[in-house]
């Protein structure tokens, strides 16, 4: 499932002709070009651009004052805190997992490797609603561990730990999926040389592997972060929607919206939309840097 | 017989002991398996074990109840339709981004990933605002008698939004790697541009296009956040299957919710296998690493 999200090394520039336009055989007649370009861009504008603009327009419909009031509302602030907390726990957990999984899979040969990669991909193909449901089945009042948890006065479902678990589940594969193909492509000669020369395992990873995969790693981290802060379905199932306690920002948007406080709902939503834009900005920057590093490497070799 | 002995004059050594220079294999693989089992595999197994508490007849009754069946039809039908729309327009968008130069191209290229990055609830309320009767787009559709928000058509719009980057991002790299010489050869052999597209480009792109279609479909079937705001959620009319799970959960019908989840999980696993197969086919067709 990660196929569509992995880091692209796009070295083609946007200025001047593309290499296809430079040749007669692959150039279109102006009519064909403008028709297909026009259709594609109209589709883009209607389905992607307009929703994005609508968020900000609706957020500011009642003016800046309403906008700011919605953002500094205590419930909004507590939702923001919980969102940051969930991301701050899920991110390092999945980072450590991603690095371990990529090291084992990319640097060693063992049976069942492809099957393991498929299993790591599983959370991508599971509906977020089911991601929440599984933890209700385990830790809910009627769940397997429900009675034991109630006895020991531990709350997981309808409490913060459940939200963190659901967040970890939906962001599970991102970092591993970025690192595995990158580290496989790098091979293991450099690491083996480092170990033979006396480096410890951690030194090898830190000084040899990490510099080679840093862009992919960073890319995985921002994807994980964006998904962790924006997750709705899975968190909705385990949250219980207790205002000021178990509401994340996306859930807060839903509550405001269902109470017909549209301007406030869109104000909070605009924060999340900004987060998405920042994520896309960093992603584009990373792709740019990675493409340059890639080019330098190839020019250095030739 | 003789040639065989001649070919290997030395006795075959038994398989050399596998030398592992790099450290940390047991630790990292062990951690990977433990973390994967605890957070993903055991919780998912809980779905099947919980469903096993039902007899087959009970299971069948839950998953074939009319309201649930109506939700499958909506979810799968609209997901297929949305993936098909995305396959067509996603291919055109990828084509435009690879083949043509135009102002703002970099920005548009970056924004294609918006549905990946934008929280689904935000997409949901934004689309609802656009397609409501007085919305930017809805006000023009209303006189034509087309209602989108709070109708099944709204589900389609949300699923198109969600699935678009999957098609663009799987097709785009294949188009970028395409050899211009292939089309030159086709043209010099007398092919029209349309023929060259149909007989030269499309066969090369097709596996990736199908992969993008399958990815968009898989994502759409499970999608929840962006759909529930715009769907209206009328029983039998505009309820998606993930919403049925939520509805059962809210009624504390855990086994009912789990039975429907089982049906969806089995479908997801089947799709995952299909997608893996398609990606292998794409890699083979184009000689690209996955």
UniProtKB/TrEMBL annotation, chain A:
One of its GO terms (molecular function) is ABC-type sulfate transporter activity. Residues 80-283 form the ABC transmembrane type-1 domain. The keyword Membrane applies. Keywords: Cell inner membrane, Cell membrane, Membrane, Sulfate transport, Transmembrane, Transmembrane helix, Transport. PROSITE patterns: ABC_TM1 (PS50928). The keyword Hydrolase does not apply. It comes from the Bacteria. InterPro entries: CysW_permease (IPR011866), MetI-like (IPR000515), MetI-like_sf (IPR035906), Sulph_transpt2 (IPR005667). The chain crosses the membrane at residues 34-57, 77-103, 115-136, 156-180, 192-209, 260-282. It is found in: Cell inner membrane. It is a multi-pass membrane protein. GO terms for cellular component: plasma membrane. NCBIfam families: 3a0106s02 (TIGR00969), permease_CysW (TIGR02140). The complex is composed of two ATP-binding proteins (CysA), two transmembrane proteins (CysT and CysW) and a solute-binding protein (CysP). PANTHER family: SULFATE TRANSPORT SYSTEM PERMEASE PROTEIN (PTHR30406), SULFATE TRANSPORT SYSTEM PERMEASE PROTEIN CYSW (PTHR30406:SF1). Part of the ABC transporter complex CysAWTP (TC 3.A.1.6.1) involved in sulfate/thiosulfate import. Probably responsible for the translocation of the substrate across the membrane. This is Sulfate transport system permease protein CysW. It comes from Thauera phenylacetica B4P.
UniProtKB/TrEMBL annotation, chain B:
It is a multi-pass membrane protein. SUPFAM superfamilies: MetI-like (SSF161098). Keywords: Membrane, Sulfate transport, Transmembrane, Transmembrane helix, Transport. Pfam families: BPD_transp_1. The keyword Chaperone does not apply. InterPro entries: CysT_permease, MetI-like, MetI-like_sf, Sulph_transpt2. It is found in: Cell membrane. It comes from the Bacteria. GO terms for cellular component: plasma membrane. Coiled coil: none annotated. One of its GO terms (molecular function) is ABC-type sulfate transporter activity. The chain crosses the membrane at residues 28-49, 76-98, 110-132, 144-168, 200-218, 224-246, 258-281. Residues 72-275 form the ABC transmembrane type-1 domain. PANTHER family: SULFATE TRANSPORT SYSTEM PERMEASE PROTEIN (PTHR30406), SULFATE TRANSPORT SYSTEM PERMEASE PROTEIN CYST (PTHR30406:SF8). Part of the ABC transporter complex CysAWTP (TC 3.A.1.6.1) involved in sulfate/thiosulfate import. Probably responsible for the translocation of the substrate across the membrane. The complex is composed of two ATP-binding proteins (CysA), two transmembrane proteins (CysT and CysW) and a solute-binding protein (CysP). Belongs to the binding-protein-dependent transport system permease family. CysTW subfamily. This is Sulfate transport system permease protein CysT. It comes from Thauera phenylacetica B4P.
């Amino acid at each position: 499932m990660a196929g569509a999200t992995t880091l692209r090394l796009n070295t083609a520039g946007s200025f001047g002709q593309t290499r296809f336009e430079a040749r007669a055989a692959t150039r279109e007649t102006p009519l064909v070009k403008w028709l297909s370009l026009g259709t594609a861009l109209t589709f883009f504008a209607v389905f992607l651009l307009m929703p994005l603009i609508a968020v900000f327009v609706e957020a500011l419909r009642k003016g800046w004052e309403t906008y700011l009031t919605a953002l500094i509302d205590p419930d909004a602030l507590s939702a923001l805190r919980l969102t940051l907390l969930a991301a701050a726990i899920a991110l390092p957990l999945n980072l450590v997992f991603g690095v371990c999984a990529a090291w084992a899979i990319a640097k060693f040969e063992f049976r069942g490797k492809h099957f393991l990669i498929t299993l790591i991909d599983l959370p991508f193909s599971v509906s977020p609603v089911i991601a929440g449901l599984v933890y209700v089945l385990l830790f809910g009042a009627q769940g397997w561990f429900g009675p034991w948890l109630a006895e020991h006065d531990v709350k997981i479902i309808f409490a913060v730990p459940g939200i963190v678990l659901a967040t970890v589940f939906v962001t599970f594969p991102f970092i591993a999926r970025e690192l595995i193909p990158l580290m496989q492509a790098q091979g293991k000669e450099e690491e083996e040389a480092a170990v033979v020369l006396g480096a410890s395992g951690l030194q090898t990873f830190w000084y040899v592997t990490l510099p080679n995969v840093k862009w992919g790693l960073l890319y995985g981290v921002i994807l994980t972060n964006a998904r962790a802060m924006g997750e709705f379905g899975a968190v909705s199932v385990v949250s219980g929607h207790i205002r000021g306690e178990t509401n994340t920002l996306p859930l807060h948007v839903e509550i405001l919206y269902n109470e017909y406080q549209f301007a406030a709902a869109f104000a909070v939503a605009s924060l999340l939309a900004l987060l998405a834009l920042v994520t896309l900005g960093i992603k584009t920057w990373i792709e740019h840097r990675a493409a340059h590093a890639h080019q330098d490497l190839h020019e250095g070799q030739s | 017989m003789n040639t065989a002995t001649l070919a290997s004059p030395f006795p075959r050594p038994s398989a050399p002991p596998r030398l592992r220079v790099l450290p940390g294999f047991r630790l990292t693989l062990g951690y990977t398996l433990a973390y994967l089992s605890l957070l993903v595999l055991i919780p998912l197994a809980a779905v099947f074990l919980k469903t096993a508490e039902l007899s087959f007849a009970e299971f069948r009754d839950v998953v074939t109840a009319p309201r649930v069946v109506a939700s499958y039809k909506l979810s799968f039908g609209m997901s297929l339709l949305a993936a098909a729309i995305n396959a067509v327009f996603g291919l055109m968008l990828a084509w435009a981004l690879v083949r043509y130069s135009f102002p703002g191209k970099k920005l548009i290229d970056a924004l294609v990933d918006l549905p990946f990055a934008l929280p689904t609830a935000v997409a949901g309320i934004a689309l609802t605002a656009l397609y409501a009767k007085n919305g930017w787009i809805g006000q023009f559709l209303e006189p034509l008698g087309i209602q989108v928000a709070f109708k099944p058509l709204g589900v389609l719009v949300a699923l198109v939004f969600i699935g678009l980057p999957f098609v663009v991002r799987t097709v785009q790299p294949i188009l970028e790697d395409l050899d211009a010489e292939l089309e030159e050869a086709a043209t010099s052999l007398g092919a029209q541009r349309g023929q060259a597209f149909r007989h030269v480009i499309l066969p090369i792109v097709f596996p990736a296009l199908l992969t993008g279609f399958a990815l968009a479909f898989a994502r759409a079937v499970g999608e929840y956040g962006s759909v529930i705001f715009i769907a209206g959620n009328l029983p039998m009319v505009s309820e998606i299957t993930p919403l049925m799970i939520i509805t059962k959960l809210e009624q504390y019908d855990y086994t009912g919710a789990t039975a429907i989840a089982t049906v969806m999980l089995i479908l997801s696993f089947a799709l995952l296998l299909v997608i893996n197969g398609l990606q292998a086919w794409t890699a083979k067709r184009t000689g690209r690493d996955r």
